[in-house]
Write a structure and sequence with these properties.
There is one protein chain. The protein has helices at about 150-155, 170, 455-460; strands spanning about 40-45, 45-60, 65-70, 80-85, 90-95, 105, 125-135, 140-145, 160-165, 180-190, 210-215, 215, 220-225, 225-235, 240-245, 250-255, 260-265, 270, 275-285, 290-295, 310-320, 340-350, 360, 375, 380-390, 395-400, 405-410, 410-415, 425-430, 435-440, 445-450, 460-465. Helix content is about 5%, strand content about 40%. The strands form six sheets. The chain has a seven-stranded mixed sheet with strand order 12-11-10-14-19-16-17, with no helix packed on it. Strands 23-22-25-30-27-28 form a six-stranded mixed sheet, with no helix packed on it. Strands 1, 2, 3, 5 and 7 form a five-stranded mixed sheet that branches. The chain has three domains: about 30-170, Immunoglobulin-like (Sandwich), CATH 2.60.40.420; about 180-320, Cupredoxins -  blue copper proteins (Immunoglobulin-like), CATH 2.60.40.420; about 340-465, Cupredoxins -  blue copper proteins (Immunoglobulin-like, Sandwich), CATH 2.60.40. The protein is built from three helices and 32 strands. With about 475 residues, it is mainly β. The chain binds CU-O-CU linkage and copper (II) ion (2 copies). One copper (II) ion binds near residues 104, 398 and 400.
Length: about 475
Amino acid sequence: GAGGLLLSAPRSSAAVTTGIDPASIAKYARRMPRLPALLPHAVSPTTDYYRVTMKEAQAEVVPGFLTEVNTFDGHFPGPVLHARSGRRVVVTQTNRLGVPVSVHLHGAHVPSSSDGAPMDLIATDGGTKTYTYPNQQSHANLWFHDHAHHTESETVFRGLTATYLLRDDVETRLGLPSGRYDVPVSIRDARFDEDGQLHYEMNDFANRQVILANGRAWPYFEVAARKYRFRFYNTANLRSFALALADGSPITLIGTDGGLLAAPFQTTSVTLSPGERADVVIDFSRYPVGTELELRNVIPQPPGQPVDVAQVLQFRVTRTASDTSVVPAALRTLPPLPPATVERSFSLLMDETPPQPAYAYINGKEFDDQRIDTTITYGTTEVWTVTNANLRAPHNFHIHLVQFRVLERNGVAVTSGAESGLKDTVMLRAGETVKLQATFGGYRGVYVYHCHLFDHASMGMMAQMQVV
Ligand code: C2O
Ligand code: CU
Ligand code: CU
């Protein structure tokens, strides 16, 4: 199996030669902030209207330093937009950053004009665009990020991400932990210069060794001795995480990218490649008040990575609390899988020589916004076989417009577990192959699919489909 394969290109194993040494950053010295809620400026019977300004701000990401970051409305990472299935959201974005951007709502089922396509740019110096999100899809953990072709990798690295929680009645009536016990957590890595500024280089995986949770390096988070729901987002450019409690206790996985699983899945680690989400319940009632418990990153590391990248955050059980929440044995009925009528194959391949690969391809081609790579008849159900043709480099695969199902991984049917629900991004370790099924309906138009390691997409590992 591929379980022992490294999840990141191992060749550039040099330690950081410049910048803040991760070992010098105090671990679990500052509290992990909760992400602020974005509030609508107007509400009609059918629609919530938001105005958001993308601008630079300063944040204390590493203790003792003020870092220039890209933000939505001044927040690093961005705020949470709380949406409801069936209720429209309209967001007017104003770009006060120094680069053109395209705001993509990852995982959303939207008209292509509001998808945030790679060439559908909002100009700098106050350019605006209004995006409409119909929310004609079931609950899901969505997120905003820049998608401007070639610059998205750096713009996102500098902070342009935000959370979008889409809820519906199916989800709310289950009685899962809610309110202050329902906590989105954005996890990523970063590299800092000596003066505490973000240092971006393309494909710089080996040197991004500072782990951030909700915008702070290695924070702690105080919890009560009861159940919490965490919505983990991997917002890193290149790094995959396998999140595990340091004592090996079970984590209950209840959902993935496109919402709840059919049934909860008990696991000791939750693996997330860039762009993926895990919706979990952790029960702290088994710990006495006073317990400190690490959430660790147990993914196999390439040589040269410091021990610090295996640390993420620390839970501190500081009080008891009542808990009426439940995790029902049945969470939802997944949509049926109609028979597929079209099969296609996709191969992801890039030059594995860092730091600047010469090519990054899907089916032998770099991204070209003037070319339609795949033409799909509206309403068709298709099976896509996607292969990571690299021997060392990891990739993943994200399709816009749809939530898909993973039918097989390396020839083995996926019938239960972490990949059995609705997905929009799927991990592909070196040499792996997955079979995906999706139905392309709802909207016609041009959408992209790509590797969601932002640096790879930025280098051209992206292509276009047109639903006609
Ligand atoms: Cu999260 Cu095409 O992107
Ligand atoms: Cu997307
Ligand atoms: Cu890739």
